Every structure is written in structure tokens, then in C-alpha cells.
User: Fold these one by one.
Assistant:
Number 1:
Amino acid sequence: MLLMLTACRKPTVVYQGQGLVEEVHPDTATVQINHEEIKGFMPAMSMPYHVKDKTMLDALKVGDRVNFTVEDSTSGTVLIDLKKADATGADKKSEPSGSSTNANKNAAPPPKP
């Protein structure tokens, strides 16, 4: 009997996705994301996702572009990683204060004396 139950278990699979935050619900640890197709998992759609840890929602707001990792298992579907993305879809990285950015690199050079 135990062997039969084990054979019916679905393996845990992890997928990567990108989308736009439509709603944030810290009280229920969920986020509504209008996401692009998640290859091998589901077509593009808007749907709510539970998050592994509700602190993942602390810095999110409606309209944020995000990259996420979703885990699908016998227990259900849950986001295990969630990061804000820039307009190109790349993860946003915090830069230490005083560091140069692309905007600074493109700035005009100081006038010559």
C-alpha cells in the first residue's frame, strides 16, 4: 500500500516566471500576478500565488514588474522566490551609496579648466 501511495506522488518541479503585480495581500500571504507564459507549466494569465514567506511581499506594490520562482508539488503551487525586475525584466540590484550607475557613466564629463 505504501509503495502505491509513493508511486502516485507528483515530483516537485520548479519553474521561472515574469509578470506584473496586480494585487498584494500580506494578510493571506498571496500576490496576484499577471504573468507571461511559464514554459512547460502554464500559459500567460493573471492568477493569485501563495508565497513561501509573507515577508517576500514587504517591498512589493501594484505595478511592479517581477521575476519569480514557482514550486509545483503535491502540496500545491507556491512562490519560493520573488524579486522586483527592471523594465527589461532583469532583477533589480541594490547599489551601495556612492557607487556609479549607468546614468553617471553617460553623464557629460566635467568642463576642462
Number 2:
Amino acid sequence: MRTLLDSGLVADTGQLYWHARLSARYPTVEVRCFDVQLRPDDAVMITGLVRALVETVLAEAAAGAPRSTATRNCSRPPCGTPPATG
């Protein structure tokens, strides 16, 4: 992603497509694959499912449960963040 940004092919990481990621600006999880629903009740249901998934992961973390491969990947910096040097 850094290469795309540096080359000017994309202006920012918001132009890259993804299904879910941690927000680079806010303490939230952004989910795009459900952005547009034809019926409001479907949008509300999907929002509830995403919130339930996040609450489940947070509760498991608070209880000291081992992290799955999927949640281990969530600890990476947001897309487009330069790698830490040290």
C-alpha cells in the first residue's frame, strides 16, 4: 500500500477497497461490504451483527482468551501506516 501511496496512484488509503479494517482516524472498526442495503431493517440487522462481533472479541480479550489468527491481524497498524523503525 505504501508503494501505491508513494507513486501517486492513490491519494490516500480510503481509495483502496477492503471489507473490514481498523479506522486510521477513530477508535472504530470500518465495514464496507455492508455499506449499502436496500432495506433499512437489513442495515440495522447487519450493524447489530458487526457490533456483536466486536463486543465478542473485546470480551474474549478481557477474559484473557487466546487470540485467533483473524484477531491477531487486527493488531497491525492501519493500512498505509509507515512501518515502525527501530
Number 3:
Amino acid sequence: YNKVEVFVLFISKSSEINIKTRLGILYTFNLLDLVFSYAGLKACIISEANPIVKIIYKASPFVFVLWKVIIPLTLIVVIDRLIELCINAKVLGLFVTSVTAVYGFIILLHFRWIYLIYK
């Protein structure tokens, strides 16, 4: 398989276990984003790109951490419940994979600013 075929297979495999694995990866990326964002914001190295999250952080860094933990966890619980209700697994799989890819890109952006600081 080439890289594109592997990606297409990953998206098309929408079994419950596969989606739950992707949800775990998604939440791990979310927690990495939280750690990198919090560290970068606290050190005044980066600024938050999401305008809603930026407002939350300025209001309270503690609420920022809660937001970054609770909202994604709630979404994961809802998606898990939808899987149990046999909602279209392929659509959920595509959604989870797409959001995970976006978070993967965000993690790469964090790695970039960390590299630029410490090179």
C-alpha cells in the first residue's frame, strides 16, 4: 500500500473498535495541545489562535484548562454513545478522523514553535 491507500483504508475502516481507537488518539492530541498551548501562553511565546479559547484563557487560565479537558471529553462520550445507538459508523469515523487530522496539524505547529525556540 502507498500512503494514500493506507489513509483511505484508515478512514473506511469504521468498526466500533477502530473508531474508539481514533477517539483515544484524538483525546491524546487534545491533551498534547493543552500542554503545549498552556506552556506557550504562560511563557508569552505564542498566542491562542482560537478566538473563543483566547477569551477563556484571558478570563481564567484555570477555566481554559477545564475547557480543553471537559469539552473534548464530552464530545467523545457523545460519539461513543452514538456508536452504541448504531448511528452511521462511517460518518462518525470520517468525522473523528478529520478532527484528529486537524489536531495532528496543530501538534505539528506546536512542534514548529518549540523547534524555533530551542534550535
Number 4:
Amino acid sequence: MTAPNDDPPVADLTTTVPSRGWLDRRIDWRGIRRTLLDREVPSRLNWWHTLGSATLTVFAVQAVTGIVLATYYAPAPDHAYESVQVHPA
């Protein structure tokens, strides 16, 4: 005999949203989620690890966008503004 469960029922999104069930059957959405998000986190991790990885991510984004900007930006006073504007093809 099992103890009664006091937790509120959780709706299964694959039955309430038909397109989500279809997508899950095609690409195994739950398996991808399980692989990426449901991991054991070591107890030795702390905020320094989190903030360090966030800083590394921000630095990588700045480096990539800086390289792209350096290839297109014209530092001449009469061409600087036009060099960073988006021109439709």
C-alpha cells in the first residue's frame, strides 16, 4: 500500500498540447531535456564557478562581436555612421 501523494497534480504537456507530443515523438524532446538539464551537480561547485563561466561567456560574445565590428567599421569621420548601418540588399 502506498502513501497518499499530497503534491498537486501536474499536467502532462504532451496530452494538453498536441503539437508538443508530436514534436516529442519526432525529436525526443524529453531525452534532450534530460541530457542537458537533469544532471547531478557536484557539491563543491559554488558561486565563483557560476560567475566565472558567466564572465567567460560575456567575454566570448564581446570578442566575436568585436571581430565582426572591426571588419565592417570605417573609422573615418565621414563614413563611420554609414559603415555600421544595415543596408537592405
